[in-house]
Amino acid sequence: MTQARFHRPEAHGFTLAELLVSTTILAVVMAAVYSSFNNATRLWRLGEENLVSLQDGRIALNIMRKDLVGIVPGSWHLFEGDQRSMMFYTVVRPMDVELEPYPRIMQVEYQLRRSAQDRSFTLRREERVVEGRLPLMVPGQETDPEDFRIQTGRARQFELGDRIHGMQIRYIWTPVVEHDNEGPPPRVDLIYEEEPPDEWEMPQAIEITLQVLDESEPSGINTFRTFVQFPGSAPSVGEEDFY
């Protein structure tokens, strides 16, 4: 038999070293792809959470502003509030549209509650329909709210945001300054109080600052602020009241 009959073609394939190199390259590429996909997914979720938080902050301030603008005239002596909460009576449509589609006199309360998941707060709004009459303050007539029992319906609570970092409420008055009508009027510095004094009349405005968590900001916090001026001519505070 000739030598050509016993000749076999060379076997084509990969060596062990080639397999190791290709496997290593494939692992590196897959790790890079997974890392990029994971980062993109995390940024998308983070952006969605931040967007929801920012929307909740804006909506919450709009609701609070609407409630404060509709406050019942003559009911300021029934107001209770401090830096982080307030309760008042206003004419507004209930948030539960199935309860009542028309505006009613409501007892509205805003307060922050500590979240159970993290160090943030939840902004909660509680409303009650007033079913009786209010002891309104009539000029020249003293009315003690403790002599009346205000009848209200069942409390309904709504959460306006669950990623709140903090809230600050300030009450603003305009002091009365004497002016002889000669020359320009003097500059008047507004009076800011963290809590409304019991002996003072209704303030001219309320300033609300709401801070929401926002990881896209360097500080991790985004701040919203609104300034609510009450309709009508509220009385000013005389110099003898705050000096």
Walk me through the topology:
Blueprint: H1 16-69, E1 80-81, E2 85-92, E3 104-114, E4 121-129, E5 156-173, E6 191-193, E7 205-213, E8 221-229, H2 239-242
Antiparallel strand pairs: 1-2, 2-3, 3-4, 4-5, 5-6, 5-7, 7-8
Number of domains: 1
Terminal CA distance: 126 Å
Look at the helices and sheets and give the structural class: alpha+beta
Q: What percent of residues are in strands?
A: 25-35%
Low-pLDDT runs of 5+ residues are 238-243
Helix content: 10-25%
Biggest β-sheet: count, sense, barrel? 8 strands, antiparallel
Kindly provide the radius of gyration, computed on alpha-carbon positions and rounded to a whole number of angstroms: 33 Å
Number of strands: 8
Can you count the helices?
A: 2
What does this protein structure show overall?
The chain has helices spanning 16-69, 239-242, and strands at 80-81, 85-92, 104-114, 121-129, 156-173, 191-193, 205-213, 221-229. By secondary structure, it is an alpha+beta fold. It has one domain. Strands 1, 2, 3, 4, 5, 6, 7 and 8 form an 8-stranded antiparallel β-sheet that branches. Mean pLDDT is 78; it is low at 238-243.
Quick take:
This protein has one domain (31-242).
Comma- or semicolon-separated keywords:
243 residues; eight-stranded antiparallel sheet; elongated; alpha+beta
